Amino acid sequence: MPGQHDSTVVAVDGPAAAGKTTTCRALAKSFDLRYLESGRTYRIIAFEALQREIPVGNAQEITELCDELIVESRSAELLTSERYASDKLRAAPVNVAVSAVARIADVRRRVTSLIRLWAETQTRCVIEGRDIGTTIFPKAPLKFFLTATPEVRALRRVRQEHADTYENVLKDVIRRDEADMSRAASPLVAAEDAIRIDTSELTLDQVVSRMSSACRKRGLETSR
Length: 224
Ligand code: DC
Description:
It is a single chain. The chain is of the alpha/beta class. It has a single domain (6-217), classed as 3-Layer(aba) Sandwich (Rossmann fold), CATH 3.40.50. It has helices at 20-31, 39-51, 59-72, 86-89, 92-102, 105-120, 132-136, 150-161, 166-182, 204-217, and strands at 9-13, 34-37, 125-129, 142-147, 195-198. The protein has a five-stranded parallel sheet. Helix 2 crosses helix 5 (92-102). 2'-deoxycytidine-5'-monophosphate (DC) is lined by residues 16, 38-39, 42-43, 98-99, 102, 129-132, 176, 180. 2'-deoxycytidine-5'-monophosphate binds next to helix 2, helix 5 and helix 9.
């Protein structure tokens, strides 16, 4: 049943480059949680669409591609597939194509089911994305919504990846915010019961420390 396993999930949502991945990995380590980066699945579909020259604006063809990938990788294993190198999934053309893929309601439904299936097999986990605490696990006992100004997020990305100029990265961050927030299917929005953290003026350690203290308050035990 959808949502049945909400009790095992820590949901972490927020816009691109708000620090979700780094903080989730730190939480996963401290609290012995399995970690899932849900955006990776949308990136895999976008990457395969580009490889196979399927237009990402064609909802029906992209949904068929999604079904094919699910069958090929034996269902929820698509979420954690190691066939795809992260640098390929994070390349600029994928960054652009992924917004169009993530807008397709039929694709979102399929990815939602896969994530719920995956979570059923975990004792407890932390999942990052855009709609984890709102749509996929609305009853998750612990939800975070991380934000930061577009300028801070762009600067962090440039410093981490050295892949592009600040101006180009800022444009991409703003474009993705707009795409994530304006789509009809599961737009990016904070769940009412999410703990909001504006990370603009915080160090990574400070963000992790706030999140960890909320985890402890909700009864999660540290692994060390
Ligand atoms: O987290 P990320 O930047 O790797 O996500 C890639 C894209 O996938 C992003 O443009 C938004 C989309 N996404 C989504 O719509 N829902 C999720 N749960 C995760 C990501």
